[in-house]
Amino acid sequence: MTVDMSQFYEVFFDEAEELLAEAEHLLLGIDVESPDVEQLNAIFRAAHSIKGGAATFGFMDMTEITHVLENLLDKIRKNEMALTTEHVDAFLAAKDVIKMQVDGHRHGSDVNAEQVSDVAMMLKSLSEGKAAVAAEPVVVAASAEAAPAATPAATAAAEVAKTALTITAEEKAKGMTLYDVGLPTVTEKDLANLKDELALLGDVEVYQRSENVHAVLIKTDSSADDIVSICSFIVDADALVIQVAGDAASEPAATPAEAATAAALVEAAPAAEAGYGFFDNDPIIKTETKADDGRVQVAEEMGYGLFASNGEEQQEEGYGFFAPFKPHPDAPKAQMIGDDNAAAAMAKAKAEAVATPAEAAPKEERRQQGRRETDKPAAAQSAESTSIRVGIEKVDQLINLVGELVITQAMIEQRVNALDPVDNEALINSVSQLTRNTRDLQESVMSIRMMPMDFVFSRFPRMVRDLAGKLGKKVEFVTSGATTELDKSLIERIVDPLTHLVRNSVDHGIEKPEVRREMGKPESGTLTLSAAHKGGSIVIEVTDDGGGLNRDRILAKAASNGLPVNESMTDNEVFSLIFAPGFSTAEVVTDVSGRGVGMDVVKRNITSMGGHIEIRSALGYGTTISISLPLTLAILDGMSVSLGKSVYVVPLNLIVETLQPRAEDLKTVTGEGLMVHVRGEYLPIIALHALFNHPTQITTPTDGVLLILEADGKKSALFVDRLVGQQQVVIKSLETNFKRIPGVSGATIMGDGSVALILDVPAIIQMGQTTNYVTGGMAFSNQNYLTSQNTINA
Amino acid sequence: MAKTILTVDDSGSLRQMVAFSLKAAGYDVVQAVDGQDGLNKAKEKTVDLVLTDQNMPVMDGLTLITNLRTLASYQRVPILMLTTESSDEMKAKGKAAGANGWLVKPFDPKRLIEVVQKVIGA
Hints:
The structure holds two protein chains of two kinds. Chain A is α+β, with helices and mostly antiparallel strands. In chain A, the strands form six sheets. Chain A has a six-stranded mixed sheet. Chain A is elongated. The N and C termini of chain A lie far apart (90 Å). Chain B is an alpha/beta fold. In chain B, 44% of the residues lie in helices and 20% in strands. The relative contact order of chain B is 0.19. Chain B contains five helices and five strands. At the A-B interface, α1, α2, α9, β5 and β6 of A face α1, α4, β5 and α5 of B. β5 (276-279) of chain A pairs antiparallel with β5 of chain B, so a sheet runs across the interface.
């Protein structure tokens, strides 16, 4: 039977990436002083699973590095080695390398071999650094030759005596074993590679048995299976002859059982099993044949062997049954291994001894360090069994269809509402039921595209950690609201701007520890990334407790850049200056330097998502950059307003209030045009009909309605005829269906089937300013205004 | 009637590979994502063979085996560990928990089928 493994590759890649992300998350949250055993286990499990998958699917480069990683992690989780920050750094570096390898296999991207070997070396040296046991020079014998019959121990001893690698009783007690690995004929290069690979497991020495015949002595606490799996990258695993090299010099006579086992293994070695076994004395799987001499008989099948409970199972390579095993009548006869209860007891005792340290380690309350999470992402563990992967285009199609349905439903509702409520009571009830169902359906469908902000947030702990390390700063990174959901397309587009903001905060916001100390702040700065729902929007904030923005310096810089500034500008307006293109350059004073680099790009990105950005800052206390985004790009909570015979939709989240002005509140300001006095502020009035050159009967603000709009920290009053009503509208792109129109962000189909344009509020405020500026407020004043329309009371 | 095999592994790719191979060989396959899931599924339907990973979240393979062996219906059902940990300790623990054998990962699908056929027949 052949199985095309490639069909599982994608699943494996996805899985590996998820595991890597999870491992990174855990690593960043780990408390080096007193690591949580559960966390270590989970990290170990991730490395372990990736290794297993990589080996199964033949990605050997990944197997190698995960193997080294796993070994080191295993030592740490078993308390054989204390976790240090170097370990965490190395693990993170290994994560990057494995990710690179995954990408390499998946997308054919470049894999930096040097980086891979560097990380492997680093892990290896860490692994050896504290675990290597200094060997005492003791003469060792190995039952070395791969001859069909067991070689007399003395001969082997004589051969191996030439080598320096030995094992002491003490090391043996620690679970170390000295293996003698007979190799097939290999090239020198392969031999060198093999030595390097095996060195990952423990101390290695290569010696020559005869011309072209080499063997390797390896002292390790890994099993023979591990040796085989390592060797199999380079040589044919079946050709390996692995034996336990005893310390025959001190204990010349191996126990009869050992000798027998060794002998049997030697016999069987060329057909060595690589992969499974059954346990002896098993009441469920009964063997029909029983070894009569306590010797090992190894199956002729490739890769499995029956396994006596004598602790020598590692001799088989790969699988085993706990015998006596009764093969199924249809199955080929299986073999079994002689029993050895004493050894079994020993093996069991050893197993228990090894198991305890990790399990017994007290579970300390995880000290929250590095990353504090106020709300954990939903358990991803079981997500796999309860989720399905669907192409995004299917979801988009579904959303479009629901959008159409919502429009149709609105049409029906409108028509029905025109009917006599008494005669059509049943129909009206049904339609209101339909309205409710449609709304629920819409919400459900929209939620498919929603993803938790954690998808974005999860990349930052690592970035902040690395960046802070590079800059010599101490930064505590805190997130909150990571479960807040946002439309997938927005999630993807928010990554870059947020990265920029977070980087800026670490780089330019948070001060160096010594500066902070002088200012009486804690040495470690805090960077908070939060997400929360606010009305129909999601608000994402990047807050640092760093130096804050210096208003005076920004003003000075803006003035020197030729931007129109004056001292009476509000803080908000001043801070918004850093979003001006090219505002900040290298020569800008340090406390704001960099904040402007690319800030115009950040702002443009946010604006194109239908969101807005604002800055709050206090000099010496820190800065908060607040991004507000619509929950989704597909649906908008809008206020429909009428202008002449048309209806326009204004995004509800940008409307501060609506009012009908009194004549005495309207003032003309030279150079600014007509202003309205609202709650102590004078706001410029933008006449939509003038802006769009749209005919209407209502041209006096006191006859119509003013919508107070706020975007980008600027407020304006939009003058329209009437308010029509508040409703959810499905956004249709005007650009893809028609062309881009300044001041219009899209279109929608209203309940009556007519098309309404959705206003692009930030653009309108901008346009209103320019218009007023250029015409000097002429829209309402004498010529333009009076010639075509009525007078207004200015 | 096709024999049913329960395969328990937290790694989706491996589980799918195992399930695919077993199905191709004519077995019915029940999949479980961890020990607890495996135990629940084993209770729902008594299977003919259990293949379980060791290292899993929620409940590991050894615990699953121990738990299965406390069930009357699982006294005589063969259980094999599919594991990358092939140390003596692990095997001793596996045996003590009540496993009947082991198969070391990585393995070739052919090998898997061969072992399975040995235990429960084609």
